[in-house]
Amino acid sequence: MKRTATTVLAVVLLATAGCTNDGGGGGTGSANVPGVTDSSVIVGTHMPLTGPAAAGYSKIAPATKAYFDYVNKNGGVHGRKIEYKIKDDGYNPANTQTVVRELVLQDKVFAVLNGLGTPTHTGVLDFLKTNRVPDLFVASGSRSWNQADKYPGTFGFNPDYTVEGKILGTYVKENLAGKKACFLGQDDDFGRDSLAGIEKILGSVAAKESYVTSNPNVGPQMGALKAAGCEVVLLATVPGFTALSIGTAAKIAFKPQFVVSNVGADPTTVGKALGAGAPLMEGLVATNYLPLTTDEANPWIQLFKKVNAEHNGNAEFDNNTVYGMSVGYLFVQALQAAGKDLTRDKLTEAVKKNGFQGPGLVPLRFSATDHSGYGGAQLTKVVGGKAAWVGTPYTTDDKDAPVTAYQGQAATPPQNGVPAA
Amino acid sequence: MSQFIYLTFDGLSRGLVYAAFALALVLIWRAARIVNFAQGAMAVAAVYVAYSVTNATGSYWLGFVVALLAGMVLGVTVERVVMRFVDHSSPLNGVVVALGLVLILQGTLGILYGNEYLPVETPFSRDAFEVGGVAMLSRYDLFVIGAVGTVVVALTLLFTRTAVGLRMRAAAFAPDVSRLLGVSVGGMLTLGWALAAAAGSLAGMLVVPTELGLHPTAMDVVFVSAFAAAVVGGLDSPIGAVVGGLVVGLLLSYVSGYIDVTVTPMAVLALLVVVLLGKPGGLFSSSKARVA
Amino acid sequence: MTDVKPKASAAPVPDTGLIVPKRRRRPHPVLVIAIGAVVVVALTYVLPPFRNYQLATVGAYFCVTAGLTVLTGLNGQLSLGHGALMATGAYTLALTQNKFMNLPFSFAVAILVTTAAGAVIGLAAARLRGPYLAGLTLAVAIVVPSVTSTFDETFNSDQGLSVVLDPPPEAFPMEQWQAWLCWSAALVVVLLLALLVRGRFGRDLRAVRDDETAARLAGINIARTQVLAFVVSAVCAGVAGALFAVLAQSVSPGAFPLTLSLFLIMAIVIGGLGSLFGALWGAVLLVVLPTLSQSVGEQTGSQRLEGNLALIVFGVVLVVVMLAAPGGLASIPSRITRLIRRNR
């Protein structure tokens, strides 16, 4: 009796858990491609919507979805509406495993787009490869996404951290020559690759410190950097820790020039975390490779603000919003290029062919052998609480290529805001 | 040397916060023989209340007072609605229920406020005074010292000089006899929870602005450090809690300054192992290892 | 979509001291496990791939909840550090596997290392009681990220390690293979536990839990019993951790947070402390509840609900079960049965 009752209960539980997921369509589309029908294409992503890493980043996927909604309202891509499934993994790699499997096996997504995080996404590379799911525009600057031989379906988006480090280093070399430069970075690929890039340009830094996200106290590190007499501090930090570092330094009357990676430099997010200490950001140098939120005259910003107002509930417009919409724009471009008769192979082929003209300041590097994203960035400086451009964009690579000024013209969005085929 | 001075002051200021939090744990332990694992989440909830009040009124101090009151109310609620009905035949039960409360509180706060770090202001500047180029204390550190000092003195007076304090101690140590003598044991228990929750909320108000910001899980790590402090001092001893707090604060500060921040949780573990194996009831325990 | 539960009723010891044990003849554990194995194999052919993956996850959780319920439910030692023991197993497997590429060998090493870790913690634990033990194991739980960052050359800090695995034999889909792997391990673990606790060792465990003085008078070596219980339970956690490393093909401290340890406690409490059958219940809930609450969150379209609703549900269930049905969910059907019988 007891056992029967429990079994019945258990079955009911599992069944309820299951029934919500069985709706996601296998395709009746052209070649029975997973997630594709004549009228829709399902794409999924994993993002930290909760947990300590969610701050700021949780706004990316809704922005991407908002852009897709905008495209859908304008007729979709080759007649297909894009359905974007956003799964929360809380930045926990174990959860990423589960939600990505759910996306691929249960929801039958056509592709995974913009999965966020190095430790989280690294774990699903093999799974996505085995299932031949295109893994586009990973939201992290790790160099792991650029392994065309090993992971033919995986492509990056962000300039990798080494490229960015070289550009940050170039700024220090040209504008702060002779000052004692030091480094504080996250204790993972982000910090390490960034430092490698910086040291390619500057040689060895005077002092280097690291932090882990599980310990929100950078007092000792900032104390050590102060004791070492640092005049410039390069940060490879996430937004919360950028704010913490700047605030802690001010607390011990340590006021170096901060030069910060794009990952941790969104003035809105950092300013919010600093609260009343937001003016401490003044003069902060960082990089960006997408249009600045404050640049009202930029046609991309005008487009994205319009999309944000119409489809994103007019959410606060920051770098994460621009980032999310830029990812969406690029994905739509790739879908257009893949043609009406959509398959997974055609999509990756289209990405490899590249030639995308979008909001980015510098070209994407995609080719048959190169799967890394943007190849450079431009420096910014916080003036009057807002980021402003400095100089021209730079491009370089993660090896020993020189850092060179990029002269190409910025593209403008098409009239209706949807890339043409 | 200058670093040593800085680390010492930093450790003392942090240690006082642990002390206030450890006091909260000790108060409840003495009154109810429960280690309140929900103390951290309750404190965070109080800080969220302060955050809302301060944002609405613009007054830090109004938020501060409301937070302590809200903490008390929460403490009373938890005791009256939940803890009172827990079967205490096994010490496990209280712990498990408290863990359940942690999940409920964190989930609720996440839904109400979102899982983002919210910036929390300090009422005083955190810029340290410098004496001869050596960073010493900030105004905020002085505030922390004053606030925790007041609590310690007030509690000491309460327990040693007032009738209520005497009744609370009696109710905790000899409930049956006290009841016969007309002491409202249940009432004293509730009062203990209220005081403890207020002390915990104070610790939360003091520590949250010095870290990443306000987040449903903001007190998790603080809880572990404060718990270590309470255990080091002996769960039965309020003085032990204060001393334990300072010991843990200094240890963490020196370890992170001279070795590495990442090592600090290991240092806490090592301290616990040494103290517990050497003196299983804590440094200030009078009796032998208390079988909970 | 039947489920796997029945096999675990193997547990010959659902008595928590709180429920009156029913004197019904129980089938021998070997028989129940064999039936369970058949059910699982059948399920892996019926279920779609994602369900198979979830089934595999349940199996992995089952290993650790079964071990923990023996420690906490039968022996009365509360460990908040089992997440850390899982991490020990997972990291050992990852390091060994990446070096030697031999999965059985890696599992063996993982078991050995967690045995050692369990013995060390168990030796300390045997001297501690109640909240002191909880505090020590809590400190163990939060030391994981600290260890991986301090020795980042070996453990690669927050980013963790990826686990290199040979692909499963051609004939089997990945998820089916994973389910088999996890459930083979789970069934072996549970069978051994069931045989262990139905014998003298089980009686010793309960005697120590209920009254140490009486147990000592009866000639039971208290410390040895407690350390042994901790080691047994640590090994189970190590196996579970190793399974998770294989499932995730990666290990990182983020996969073994403090909440994992708390969830494990919750799982065994909800299932009914001390009952292996309840441990299975707990393992199922650990997989099902988050999925359910996520889909609720998705349907309401509220991002904030999504992760947090699960927490609240877990918490409420935990408190309610503790207050209303200390025998765990598994005891409810029998309570109802008893009620019905009484009313007849």
From TrEMBL, chain A:
CDD domains: PBP1_ABC_ligand_binding-like (cd06343). Keywords: Signal. Gene3D superfamilies: 3.40.50.2300. Residues 1-17 form the signal peptide. SUPFAM superfamilies: Periplasmic binding protein-like I. Residues 43-385 form the Leucine-binding protein domain. InterPro entries: Leu-bd, Peripla_BP_I. Pfam families: Peripla_BP_6 (PF13458). PANTHER family: BLR6548 PROTEIN. Belongs to the leucine-binding protein family. This is ABC transporter substrate-binding protein. The lineage of its organism: Bacteria, Bacillati, Actinomycetota, Actinomycetes, Micromonosporales.
TrEMBL record, chain B:
The keyword Plastid does not apply. The keyword Membrane applies. It comes from the Bacteria. InterPro entries: ABC_transp_permease, BCAA_transport_permease. Keywords: Amino-acid transport, Cell membrane, Membrane, Transmembrane, Transmembrane helix, Transport. It is a multi-pass membrane protein. The chain crosses the membrane at residues 12-29, 36-54, 60-82, 94-114, 142-159, 180-208, 214-232, 239-259, 265-284. It is found in: Cell membrane. It holds the Pfam family BPD_transp_2. Belongs to the binding-protein-dependent transport system permease family. LivHM subfamily. This is Branched-chain amino acid ABC transporter permease. It comes from Actinoplanes sandaracinus.
